[in-house]
Each structure stands twice: as structure tokens, then as C-alpha cells.
Amino acid sequence: MVDALRTAGRVRSAAVEEAFRTVPRHLFLPGLAVADAYADEAVAVQFTAGVATSSASQPSMMAIMLEQLDLRPGHRVLEIGAGTGYNAALMSRIVGPAGAVTSVDIDEELVDRAAVHLASAQVSGVDLVAADGAHGHPPGAPYDRIVLTVGSDDVQPEWVSQLVPGGRLLLPLAVRGSQLSVALDLGPDGVLRCDSVRSCAFIRLRGAAARADSNRLVEELGVALQTPDDYPEPDLAAVASVLADPRERRAAPVPLGAVDVWDGFGLWLALTEPGAGRLLAAEPETGLPDDLFPLGSTGGTVALAAEDGVAAVVLAGPPGPGPGAVAVREFGPGGAALGDRLLAALDEWAAAGRPGAADWRLTVVPTGVDAPALPAPQVIVKKHCRVLAEHPRASSSAIRRG
Ligand SMILES: C[S@@+](CC[C@H](N)C(=O)[O-])C[C@H]1O[C@@H](n2cnc3c(N)ncnc32)[C@H](O)[C@@H]1O
Q1: pLDDT digits over 78-111, tens only?
Q2: Residue 84 CA to ligand 1 centre (angstroms)
Q3: Which Pfam family, giving just one, matches this sequence (predicted)?
């Protein structure tokens, strides 16, 4: 497993490699065949009402995040999302006996199981706590590093206040429909700056900082419309009647693969176009044209939606592993105008060098802190912070303000 993580460039530093080689992952997944424990896959370990509520994360994602976290011997670390305890054990190995790892999980039963796993792996340097990580863990503060291994919609003030000056907060943060692993460094001005952004897909927080799903189901069509929380909520009945009125299908000049749709072009569109959203197949049979949902394993695509029209990216050829030909499908009387905007956005994204998640630079400004002067950021307003997103290669005039 570690050889493969190295070859793929996921493990880069000697410290992260040594930790992965030393801590036996299978001891954190008792009952699973050893070969399966070392496959590069997430392993769900708890389900609630059919939905995974805890998992041992995919080793390559863990490696990416441990590299982003940049742990040093002697660091004091808080992990939110103890799960099996495996990541806490890896971190404990890196920070060594001079450091300290505190790991909290909202689920007492999981914490009890993690304690058994850590004991069987003979890891003694982890302090496990059953608590809601929304509030951090004040007794151990301040921390050099705080890491969430669970997805969050916002940056809780407690996480920022429990960091040392210059400390780093690493979390899977929801950014307009994409989830991005962002490494945020706390500056003396109270602003958190991030140079390292990666795509990710984590289970989301339960407890005080949980957010209801923003999917809105169009029941009669078997699809859900997901729009960014800080964009105006569309009238669902109007969108439903528009979707029942398919019109033109126009070839797009830019080939796209599934990754491009979600965190490449999809993220670009969500950051630059008011009205951007995602259409997700909520049921296997949808009442929409067949070619609307070929992208990704669960089915879904990116779209511009308004009350008089929808324009969505659809596959124009047989689905394949790499980028393929796509078209823009228009619905309703306003679909043609939205189709024009969607095609223009595709051109702009291609002209900017097809940026992906890693190409965006994010700055998180906690509520009450003054925003730094930046040339032309896209601004995402959350309850506890504003997220400023800049694309280093994009000129300000090429971006429509959201
Ligand atoms: C992807 S798992 C973490 C994997 C873990 N780091 C490991 O190495 O196995 C996410 C965990 O976050 C926990 N969680 C969810 N909401 C939480 C909250 N508010 N506070 C603390 N933990 C939470 C879940 O119970 C789950 O165990």
C-alpha cells in the first residue's frame, strides 16, 4: 500500500511514509480481510438509516491530508473525527513523544472501539474524547494543528480561537457544491490563508455544526436540484415545469471528463455564475432525456437554472474513462440564453487553462475580521466566515462576479 502511495505521489515526505509503514491499518479494521484493509479504498464502519456515518478514510486521501497538514515532532494536534483511530495513530507517530494528539468523535461507541484499536496497535500517545468537535476541545488548546477528517460547511470560530498564532487548520470545506480539503494558516491579522487545495469527499459533520442537505427534490422528475446556499433559492415548481420542456441540444467545443464536471468546470461555474447548480439523479429512472445523467457514478451534471429555463452539460458521445465530447442541453423558453452563458463559461474555463480545485487560492476571513485587499476575489458568504476565492491565472475581466 505504501509503495503504491509513494509511486502515485500521495506520500511525499519521509515522516508520513514512516508513519504509514509503522502503524498497521488492519488492526483498526478488525473483522476485515487483511488484503481489504490495505486496498486504497475507504471502509465504512458504521451506518445510520442506510447512510455511512463513520469510515476509515481512503489511504490516498489520508496521505494527501497528512502532507497538507505538515506535522512536526513536538506538535500539539487536535483531530475532529476519531473514527477508527487510525489517522490519530499515524499523527501520533509523526509528532512523537514530545508532541500530543487529542482526537474527538461525537459517537461514544466509536471512541470506545478506537481505544481498543489503539491499544492493540500499542499506540499510547493519543487522548480520545467523546464530544462534539464543533466546539473544538478547549482543555487541550492551543493547538499547532487542528484537522477535521469529516466535512464541514463552515469554519467554526472555536477552531480558529484554539489555534496557536501561525497554526494550521485543515478541513474538508464545502465550497459551492464541491468539498475541498483546505490547509488554512492563521495570520497575525486573524485571516486564514490557504495555498493548498485538494478535492475530497468526506462524510459530513453531525451535531451542532451539522447543516441540512441543500438538495431540493423535483419529485415528479426523479431529480434533485442542488444550488449553493448563498445563492437565491430557485422556485422549484417553476424549475420542474421548465425541465419538462426539453429544447435544443448544442455541441460544446470543450471535451470534459467526470472530474472536470465536478471540481474543474463545475467549481469554476459555481464560483463565477449566479444560478449555477447541480442536477442529481435521485432515482435510477428520471423523467428527463436519457443523456442528461451519464456523468459520474451516481449520475448528475452541472447546470445553470432559472425560473424560465435550464441549461445543462450532457455527454455527446459514449461514456469513457477520460474527457469526452459534451453538449449543452437547453430546457424551457429561457434555456437558449442560459445555454449561451454556459457555452461562454466553458470557453472561459478552457482559456484559463482548465483549472481544477488545486488551482484556486482560498482565503477565509472569520466574521468580524477585516478582509484583506485582493484583486478580484469571488466571495462566498457563510455564517461564521467569508471565503474569498481567487484563480491565479484568471484575469478579473474574464470572471463574472457571483
Ligand atoms: C471519515 S470518519 C473519520 C475517520 C478517522 N479519522 C479514521 O482514521 O478512521 C468521520 C468521523 O467523524 C465523526 N464525526 C461526525 N460529526 C462529528 C462531530 N461533530 N464531532 C466529532 N466527530 C464527528 C464521525 O462519527 C466519524 O467517525
Answers
A1: 999 999 999 999 999 999 999 999 999 999 999 9
A2: 9
A3: PCMT
* Mean of per-residue pLDDT scores for the chain: 90
Secondary structure in 3-state letters for the chain: CHHHHHHCCCCCCHHHHHHHHHCCHHHHCCCCCHHHHCCCCCEEEEEECCEEEEEECCHHHHHHHHHHHCCCCCCEEEEECCCCCHHHHHHHHHHCCCCEEEEEECCHHHHHHHHHHHHHCCCCCEEEEECCHHHCCHHHCCEEEEEECCEECCCCHHHHHCEEEEEEEEEEEEECCEEEEEEEEECCCCCEEEEEEEECCCCECCHHHCCCCCEEEEHHHCEEEECCCCCCCCCHHHHHHHHCCEEEEEECCCCECHHHHHHHHHHHHHHHCCCEEEEEECCCCCCCCHHHCCCCCCCEEEEEEECCEEEEEEECCCCCCCCECEEEEEECCCHHHHHHHHHHHHHHHHHCCCCCHHHCEEEEEECCCCCCCCCCCEEEECCCEEEEEECCCCCHHHCCCC
28 shares a domain with 174: yes
Distance 80 CA to ligand 1 centre (A): 6
**What band does 206 get if pLDDT is binned at 50, 70 and 90?**
very high
Residues 157 and 283 in one domain: no
Question: Is 333 found in the same domain as 197?
Answer: no
**pLDDT mean over 10-28:** 98
How many domains does one find in the chain? 3
Tell me which residue range forms the domain holding 390. Answer: 359-398
57 is catalytic: yes
